[in-house]
Design goal:
The chain has 7 helices and 8 strands; from the N terminus they run βααβααβαββββαβα. By secondary structure, the chain is of the alpha/beta class. The strands form 3 sheets. It has a 4-stranded mixed β-sheet. Strands 4-5 form a two-stranded antiparallel sheet.
Length: 212
């Protein structure tokens, strides 16, 4: 069964968000980068050791500075992304690409890197059908301006305020502070499955190996 499997590895975003929000248990960002990329490579090696026919897709991480949770914590101006956080994403993505290339050089086949970071930069735009790359569908705000996360309530001035969902989630990249909307996930999955462009998938498209 494993030799007919398709394994998707999407990891790292939560680790970096925790570090950016000061929740990394004293680890430096360099340590987080090393540990995260190392764990992903170890997962690939372990899967490949089980059966060399397994098809593996490793996702890079999205532009971290555009995640609403990071933007709010960093007090990033409306409509903008935190460039320092985006540089961390770039470091991860460069590092994992180099390490996956090294694995291929050792004979690991059917290994694809999906550059969702590029999809975010190209498609999370008005031209792509979305309001912009930072707006959130489900959130709220109190009269004092305090942010309310999706699914939460906040008491202020004797009243209770809650987050509400937008009327048309298909126009938003972000559902809440951490997760893309179903509409943007459809964009991601469509490109992952159909694209053969090295801008999005390397070294070859997913469909080309699944159809073998």
């Amino acid at each position: 069964m494993l030799d007919q499997s398709l394994m998707l590895i999407s990891a790292g975003t939560n680790d970096y968000v925790s570090a950016l929000l000061g929740q990394s248990d004293g680890q430096s960002m360099e340590q987080v980068l090393s540990a995260t990329t190392g764990a992903i490579v170890k997962a690939v090696e372990d899967l490949y050791a089980m059966t060399k026919s397994t098809k593996i897709v490793v996702f890079d991480v999205p532009p971290l500075g555009c995640l609403p949770a990071v933007r709010y914590f960093k007090k990033t101006p409306p409509g903008q992304c935190d460039e320092a956080a985006n540089k961390i994403a770039d470091q991860h993505n460069t590092g994992i690409r180099v390490k996956l290339d090294a694995l291929r050089g050792k004979g690991v086949t059917n290994l694809i890197m999906f550059k969702q970071s590029t999809v975010f930069r190209v498609k999370a735009t008005a031209a792509g059908g979305f309001i912009d790359k930072t707006s959130v569908c489900c959130e709220g705000k109190t009269p004092s301006g305090a942010r309310i996360a999706c699914g939460q309530t906040v008491k202020e001035g004797g009243k209770t305020y809650s987050a509400t969902a937008c009327k048309d989630p298909t126009k938003y990249v972000w559902w809440d502070w951490y997760n893309p909307t179903e509409a943007f996930n459809e964009v991601l999955s469509g490109i992952l499955w159909h694209s053969n462009s090295v801008s999005y998938v390397t070294p070859f498209g997913l469909k080309s190996i699944v159809d073998k």
